[in-house]
Design a protein that fits this description.
mainly alpha, 73% helix, 451 residues, Growth Hormone, Chain: A
Length: 451
């Protein structure tokens, strides 16, 4: 409390504003929940990365034809499509806390069972189930994180999720590099190794409180007050109540349909060219002697690291210049990077590398906004559902980039393939100019209110 004196009047006390979720300072609790929520993207990057390394040993041992290689490689992506679409809505119904560790137990169990797999169908089924659990974790963890985040730090806290994805991918290649020395059966331990970070997250996430926003939306006022007192102190103020029930259909209705198209399309248009640019990866790596054998795992880790570096300045810019300018200018420079390697026939290596670096650094903007926009543009009652829809759309993009790209390279060549990737990026720019909103500095209630 502070005392204010005025001439001719007795002193009176001015009451300090009560602590709310939105105006709370960054605390150890916020740092912990940001780290724990990043576990899902970390596992996504790790699981998608490690299977590519394990495939080099699985293929001859299990006699995998090209069809089964493709199915196993994309099994987690298919599972994530289902997991995001279904369990985002389930999370809005039953709460964030219940699902926060349940999905991780599924990943732990499926990871361990891969040690005992004897054929391709068994591995495929196990990895589809793992993908469902990872796809479910995106709306679960990021919704919980957004609903605890102060508005000054919300963009950075959510943006760190993509950093965790690239860290997971980088670690996967390093682990694969180390485990290859175990011999022909090392692929089993590679696939099972995802159980280690998943189990660690189960322990770390234990005891995380339920979102007070979700509790208020479901009229559980006493529980919400207890959580606010625990996290923000006894003088904290409850979030506003939401009287309307959960409705998945609202994601595609009224003012939210445009937002759903925006978050789904910009994420999809970002993912497809990212995988297309990977076509130049072997050419870049070969110049450093990292394109074949176990050394290729180190090269892939290095490429992941470049994309990770691009996310770091974006984490700062999202809170300084804002969301809308960041995504627009990022797509501009991503287009430039792709154009450098697609417009000129047979570009020299230095030009390929320059275009790759420009694209990788610029892609940090949409990367960090992948989880910021879907969580900010929707109210509590449909937030996880919206994140699930956006996650499913992104997996479509990943599927196209993973499976259509090889056919495109064989049919029309790398230059025309990259030209198509450039056009797709321009679509992402167009969608962003047309529909991107500015949510910096707004409370979640303000940001989620339809324009």
């Amino acid at each position: 409390m502070s005392t204010t004196k005025t001439r001719g009047k007795t002193p009176h006390r001015t009451r300090a504003p009560r602590r709310t979720v939105e105006n709370a300072p960054m605390s150890p609790f916020h740092r912990r929940i940001t780290t724990y929520s990043s576990g899902g993207p970390f596992l996504d990057g790790y699981i998608l990365g490690i299977v590519g390394i394990a495939m080099t040993q699985m293929q001859p041992m299990l006699h995998l034809n090209s069809t089964w290689q493709g199915l196993i490689g994309g099994s987690a992506l298919g599972g994530m499509f289902l997991g995001g679409a279904v369990f985002g809505y389930v999370t809005d119904l039953v709460g964030r806390r219940l699902m926060y560790t349940l999905d991780l137990w599924v990943i732990v169990i499926m990871s361990i069972l891969q040690i005992f797999a004897t054929n391709a169908p068994e591995i495929f089924v196990l990895r589809v189930i793992m993908g469902i659990a990872i796809g479910a974790d995106y709306p679960i963890a990021t919704s919980l994180l957004a609903e605890f985040a102060p508005k000054r730090h919300r963009g950075t806290m959510l943006g760190l999720q993509i950093v965790a994805w690239y860290v997971g991918g980088t670690v996967a290649y390093l682990v694969g590099y180390l485990l290859v020395g175990l011999g022909p059966g090392a692929w089993r331990w590679m696939l099972a190794s995802s159980a280690v970070p998943a189990f660690a997250l189960v322990i770390l996430r234990h005891g995380t409180p339920e979102s007070p926003r979700w509790l208020m939306a479901h009229h559980r006022v006493d529980e919400a007050r207890a959580v606010m007192n625990q996290v923000f102190g006894p003088e904290s103020e409850l979030p506003p109540a939401n009287e309307k029930p959960v409705s998945f259909g609202l994601v595609f209705q009224d003012g939210y349909l445009r937002r759903t198209l925006f978050v789904s399309l910009f994420w999809l248009f970002q993912i497809v060219p990212l995988f297309a640019l990977g076509a130049f990866g072997p050419k870049i790596l070969s110049s450093f002697g990292l394109a074949s054998g176990n050394a290729a795992n180190l090269g892939s880790a290095a490429i992941n690291f470049v994309f990770l570096i691009g996310c770091l300045p974006a984490l700062r810019l999202v809170e300084t210049v804002g969301r809308r300018p960041l995504i627009i200018w990022s797509f501009v420079f991503m287009t430039v990077g792709l154009a450098i390697v697609s417009v000129i026939a047979h570009p020299p290596l230095w030009m390929v590398m320059f275009g790759f670096v420009v694209y990788a650094l610029a892609s940090g903007g949409p990367n960090v906004l992948d989880w910021i926009y879907p969580n900010e543009l929707y109210p509590t009652r449909i937030r996880a559902s919206a994140v699930g829809v956006a996650t499913s759309a992104s997996r479509i993009g990943a599927f196209v980039g993973t499976f259509v790209l090889p056919f495109s390279l064989a049919a029309i060549g790398i230059r025309d393939t990259m030209l198509i990737a450039t056009v797709i990026t321009i679509f992402g720019l167009f969608v962003s100019v047309l529909w991107a909103e500015e949510t910096r500095g707004k409370t979640l209630a303000e940001a989620s209110r339809p324009e």
